[in-house]
Amino acid sequence: MQETINVLDMGTDKENPKAHGEDVPDNLRKGLGRSLADYVEDTHNILAERGPKYGSPSGLGAIWAEGDDAGITVGKDSLMRVMRGVSADDQSYSLLYDSHRHYAMQELAEAPETSGEGHESWKNPASNAGAVLGAMNSIGTDVIYDERDGKIGEINDTARYAYHVAGAPVTAIPLVGDSAQRMIDAATYEWSKDVTSTAEAKSKEQNTDNYTSGVNGTYAIIDQWAESRGIDIKDTENRSADPDWDAWQAMRREAKQSYTASRSDAAAYLDWD
Question: Taking the complete model, does pTM exceed 0.70, yes or no?
């Protein structure tokens, strides 16, 4: 996978890698999409810039290996461009998107019972979720923006069948446990709304640093997790009685910041004008 991403992104023209990574051949998209979904742990950590093991965002020259475990270390820019190329196939994009939503919820499900000093134990997985879903929304936005007419409808339609796309149900991902699966099922937010709202904002806003559309799906994941932990997110009047209420708010703020930063990365990596 490391070499596949490198070859697809760089091609033979090392002076202009962006001309290659985003142009994955049609006959490779579905197979590569399924393969990338199998690498969701590695790709999630690269998109969230969880180095140094993964070398993100710049990447490393070789895979990392620890005993029997190993993982890819491609640059965030190369990964996003290849994922963009794969995502020209709507079903493959849906599979990748839902894989990362599920993995984000799994990370939250594994968070400690208490938020820790400065709420760091809870803010970290929230930050990862924001960064990764910001990247995924940006990839979908780029597909819509490049192809325009009819693409929004196609992505909306594909999202409705997200659990069984490309012949590989997201529920089969072994890294996602039952508790995370139940929470993601309860967080019924339609992620295609985030993608299309980001695309619409991009079409209206020439300066890509000035909008933060599409973060609602990330909030939906965090909110569902908070409710599963017994946090009454609707009780704004009595929030002082629940020390975790402020931690939940801190998670949302952290996720939004990471989402915005990742969307800004996409502007450079995907060569938004």
Answer: yes
